[in-house]
Each structure stands twice: as structure tokens, then as C-alpha cells.
Amino acid sequence: MSFRQKFASTLGFSVFFLASSVFFVHAQETNDQKFSIQIDRSNAPMVVDGNANEAAWKSLKPTKDFFQSFPYDTGRAQNQTEIKITFNDQFLFIHAVCYQEKFIVSSLRRDFGWSSSDIFFVVIDPFRDKLNGFYFAVTPYGVQKEALLANAGDRNAEWDNKWYSEAIRYEDRYEVEMAIPFKTLRYKQKSGDPSAWNINFGRNNLALNERSSWAPVPRVQSLTDLAFCGKLDWMKPPPSPGSNISLIPFGLLRQSKDFEKRTPADVGVNAGFDAKVAVTSSLNLDLTVNPDFAQVEVDRQVTNLSRFELFFPERRQFFLENSDLFGSFGFSSANPFFSRRIGIGRNVNNGENVSIPILFGARLSGRINKDWRVGVLNMTTAKSDAFGQPVTNYGTYAVQRRIGERNNLGAIFVNKDALGSNDTVNRFNRVAGLDFNFASANSRLVGKVFYHQGFSPSGTNGQNAMGARATFTNNKWNIEGSMTNIGANYNPAVGFNPRTNFIRNNAQFNRVFFPKGKISKLVNSFYIGPDYDFIYGKGDKRLLDWDAGLYSGVDFQNGAQMRATLLRWDYTYLFNAFDPSNTGGLRLPANTSYLYFSNRIWFASNPRNKFFYTVSNRFGQYFNGKIMQLQTTSNLRLQPYATIGLDVNYTAIRLPAPYGNADIWLIGPRADITFSRSVFFTTFFQYNTQANNININARLQYRFKPVSDIFLVYTDNYFATDGENGTAFVKPWQPKNRAIVLKATYWLNL
């Protein structure tokens, strides 16, 4: 039997086993059958000020008795919460009384980090599919965060939309009031009989190190998992959102200079706009003309010891809404659509990411009904002489059909066309694919199966990719396994696929322990078990890479964490010559193999302290030499106005002669200062000897209205070390390029 046949048979067995497991677990009772809250219309005037002084609030009976999810999930929360909820023709109103005496927040910045602040939040699932929904959170200082929820746990916090809230702090509690416009929520408006949504409310109380929720969530699951929502019963149907058209114009002034090309400073003016049109209450059309993403934070540099391309997440707002509908196909390392391929290219001179102008684009995405989601994305980029790229059109078409309780079948077609190009080899690139995503009713079993087929002018074989993955989690076990088969010529030009022509099998099995007695006062849980990852080259017909070791971790009651990979063996077969330091040194020869042993330890301190840190260490053998890598991240929280941090990564590689040694430094001090809830300043410095780059980025943001901002952004790049750069000799702190941008955006409802 061939390897493909073996893989196909294993894949078929996996699908049968996993599908059987899904439908077996589905039969149990869920929270939306046991927990419900009623909501009725209020015609009284409401003021969003954090208080519940209005008559509409006083007439409502609060919902209470929150359950603790962490550190234990067997009883009620120590610090309780009381909820009231109502609505009118425009807004969904929520008021919460959150009892606690000490408050911890990261800053006054909107969209603060996960688990970095005390919060009250609500998750809303209007279609009750337990897969897709909305998240809205507020800190005791009234700072907002929102996110899109998808695929049984994915959270997209880059999504930005308009809603209103306020918070007031007292000695024994803080109170939160939210007003979420129905125009912000995507739902199918019903007439006649009252309808129901799914909903849950939660708390993160850092001072007590407690997480709690209204409808209970097991401690091994995320509080934002829509599988555990209760039911929101509408006494009267929610109103139609009505017409929903928003125009978001922008204008900017930019001055930039390229010192390497020694050209005069370039001064420019630019303008464009985005538009949002609600085709239906659950289907949205987004338009963009001449977009500019100058305000988007630049990528954080990393030490790269890999032979393959690194993944950097999408940060541009236009690509984020319903991004799971387009970007969740395949695996993260075998993805047919990666939006950063659109409008971002790589500078062939220095390897840095640069912007390629987008002329215009449109995206139609959302729901047709409870069972069907659709997405159409079309973008056109301008011609780029500097990178040899013609005018290029990108089209992506996706559809998703819900099957059963929490499963769906998705189809995608991605097309890249080089318009007017004479390059017959790269004139177009297309991928079509099917994904089946499954999740049990209690989220213990989650996974997917996919098959993708590529098409190109060459018409060669091996333009396909397939895979299967499953994760099982309960109070005793964490089990995860996956298989991937990537063809020799699978090349999704609009996707992310760092390597080809291999079969991969990886898994980990961790036994979880929740200690009792005296140790339980210090340790919440710990786990230990083996993990492995094998990659077989189909062309080489041999193992190319494998690693295996003993993986363990400890979660302490105070919030600190420790992870360790012990007794780890790595095997690497070099099918191409490679410098293990990625610094341009003498390369190890192709067709050689290496087996090496190392250990890795990671520790994160109590995040509730004003000074908190992480430290990780890798030490042992590395190819035919040795490695010692030490990385630290330290933070000082000056509540609530600032967080000052310092990242230091030192990598020492020692190889036998004639290959030499390398000492790689990556140092990054940073500051996040929030003068108020509307004025933010972020700056960071990155010194990277591996990339020979010093980067300075500073951004001042003034949010003068919801989702309306003024940005002043300064970026500067220098050489970090001396040496040859092409035909020139460069010195440390010799400038590469510099830019300053003033940009204003305004959200206008029509």
C-alpha cells in the first residue's frame, strides 16, 4: 500500500471515529436547556452612566448566583455578580454589579490584552449555533474591548465596532452599564412569535484570581466558549436594526525618506474611505477605496532559527470582520487564504515587509440564515515596478453549512490573477477546498478534516493538501493529534504554506492532575505526558524532521505558570544547505542529518503583581554543536495609566570549526501610556543583530469619537551592526528609512 493510500485509509477511519464521537456526546443536556433569562422592552429613557437610577432598571429583578470556573468549578463564585438586561428600539442594555474590593487593570487602552485586567463581559450568540458570536467587555475603569467569536473558541480581538458603556467604582464593587446597538449585532430579524438568543455573562477577578460566569463553564474550557451559553428569551421580538450604512473616510499626510537609495524625501497626501452597508440584518457589504494602513502597528521582530517562513498575524481592520469565514480553512501551516498576501510584499533588498497599494476592494459576508454563512472577497492591488508585480486581482469565495449541533461543512475558492501579465507560468493561481469542522456539545472534542486542490498554468500533479486534526480535553486528559499530507506542487499564492511534499503526523498526550490537601493551596493543576512530531518527505522517501519529548506544566493558584519540555530529541535532515544561526555564516552541507538533545523551560510570574515577567530557557545540543537561548519579558504596571516593558532575547550558538559561532541579540524596550480613555501613546524600540536592524516605532492616538481617530505615527530603521550591505559598507546606526504620518479617520452613520 502506498503512503497516500495509507494516509487516506487513516483519514477515513479518523473521520468515522470523530463523527461518531461528536454525535454520541451531542445527546447530553446543555446550558441553554437549563439556564434562561428573560428580556422585555423598556420605553423609558436611558442614560449610559454606570448607574441603575432609571425606572427601567429599578423595576427589574436581578439575575445572580454566578458559578466559579477557576480555580475550581464545583461551586458558586466568591465574589458575586448581579445582572439586569432590557432593550428599546435601538440598543440592547445590560447593567452589572460586580462585587470586589480591589481592582487590577493593565491600562486605559481600548482592546487591552486577554486576562490582563479585571473585566465584566457578555458573549452573545444570536443564531444559537454555538459557533459564532460577539464578545463585549468593560473594566472597572470603563475601558472597552470587543471581539468576534468563531469555531468553538477562536477570538478575533482586532474587530472594532461602535457601542457604548460606562463604569463606576465603589469600595466594595464596580458597576457597569452597556448599550450595544442592534446595528452592531448581526442577526436575523424575526416577526411574529418571540425568539431566543444564546447569551452568557462572565467575570475575570484578578485580585482574587477567580473567573466566574452566569451559565457554568468547566475550568478546562474558555469562558468565551459559546457551547456553554444560557438562553436569552425575548418577551417581544428584538427590533429590526433598520438601515445601517456607515462611511469611514480617511485622510493623511506622509513624509518619508529612503536613505539606502539616497533619494530626496517624499512628501505625499492621500485619502480614501471604507463603507459598511447592511444588505440584511445579518449580511454585510464592506467597501474600501484606496485604503491606507499607516496606523497599524508594525510587526514585532523575532529571532528566526527556522528554515521556513514565519507567520505574522493580520492587523488591518478591513480584513478582520468574518475573517474566520475566509481564513480558517486548512491548518495554520497549510492555509489556502492568508489576507496578509494582499497589499503586503517583501522588499527583495532587505527582506522587510512593505506596503503595495490596494486600489479598491469589496467583501460581502455574513449569514443567510441559521445554517448558512457566505463570504465573497475581491481586492485589486496596483502595479509595483519596485517588486516586479503587475496589477493583481484577488478573489475569495467561501460558504459554510451548519450540520448537526456544532459542526459545519465549508467550501472555499481562492483566485489570484495577474492582470495583463505575459508570465505564462505565474499568470494565475487558484485553490479550491472543502473543510469539515466538528465540535461536541461540551467542547471536549474539537477538530476538522480538509482537502484542498490547487490549479496553476503549469497543470502539474501534486497540487493538493489534506489533513485531519482532533483535540480531546477533560479534567484528566489533554489529547491532541493531527495528520497532514502536502503535495509536491501545492503552492497557494494567497495562502500560507511554508513547505511542501511531505506527510506529517504529530500528537501529544497529557495526564492532568488536580492536587488535594496542602499542595492544593499552592498548585491548581499540573500535567505531564509525551509529545512527538514526525515529518516524512515524499520526494526523498525518508524522514526529514522529527522531535519527541516529555511535555509538562504547572498552573499555580496565584496565576503563575510553568512549562517544560524535558528529554527532547530533535532530528533534522537538510535537503538544502543551511546556516543554523540564519546570520549568513558558513552553511551545513545538504543531504546531511543531525540528531540532537535539549531541554526547554518557561515560567510566567503572578500577573496580578505590579511587576510581572516571563523567562524561558533552551539549552543543549543543536545540529552538530550547542545552543543556549535565554528570553525574558518584564513588565511594570503603573495602574491605570501605563505599562513599561523590556524584552531581551539572547541566543548563543556554538558550532565546530569551520562553521563558527553566533551571538544573537534581540532587545526591545516598550511603553504603553494611556493619558485617558481617548488618548494613547505606544512606542517600542527593537535592536536585532540577526536581521541587522534597529527599529523605532511610536504612535500617538486620539479617539475623539467612537471608532473615529487621529493618529501620529513615526517609524525609523537603522543598521544594527557594521558590515557589507550589497556593494556598500554600513556602520551601526546608519539610517535605512524613516517616515512620519498624520492620519485621521471618522465613522459616519448615514
SSE order and pairing:
Elements (H helix, E strand, L loop, with lengths): L2 H23 L5 H4 L1 E4 L15 H4 L8 E4 L10 E7 L3 E9 L19 E7 L7 E6 L5 E7 L3 E3 L7 E6 L3 E9 L14 E10 L4 E4 L16 E5 L10 E14 L7 E15 L2 E7 L33 H5 L16 E3 L6 E3 L2 E10 L4 E10 L10 E12 L3 E12 L9 E12 L5 E11 L8 E10 L3 E10 L15 E12 L9 E15 L4 E15 L4 E14 L17 E13 L6 E12 L2 E14 L3 E13 L6 E14 L4 E10 L4 E13 L2 E11 L4 E3 L2 E3 L4 E11 L2 E2 L1
Parallel strand pairs: 1-13
Antiparallel strand pairs: 2-12, 3-4, 4-10, 5-6, 5-11, 6-7, 7-8, 9-10, 11-12, 11-13, 14-15, 14-41, 14-42, 15-16, 16-19, 17-18, 19-20, 20-21, 21-22, 22-23, 23-24, 24-25, 25-26, 26-27, 27-28, 28-29, 29-30, 30-31, 31-32, 32-33, 33-34, 34-35, 35-36, 36-37, 37-38, 38-41, 39-40
Structure description:
With 750 residues, the chain is mainly beta. Among the domains are: 1-28 and 309-471, no CATH class; 35-234, Immunoglobulin-like, CATH 2.60.40.1190. Helix content is 5%, strand content 51%. The chain is built from 4 helices and 42 strands. The strands form 5 sheets. It has a 24-stranded antiparallel β-barrel. Strands 1, 2, 5, 6, 7, 8, 11, 12 and 13 form a 9-stranded mixed beta sheet that branches. The chain has a 4-stranded antiparallel beta sheet with strand order 3-4-10-9, with no helix packed on it.
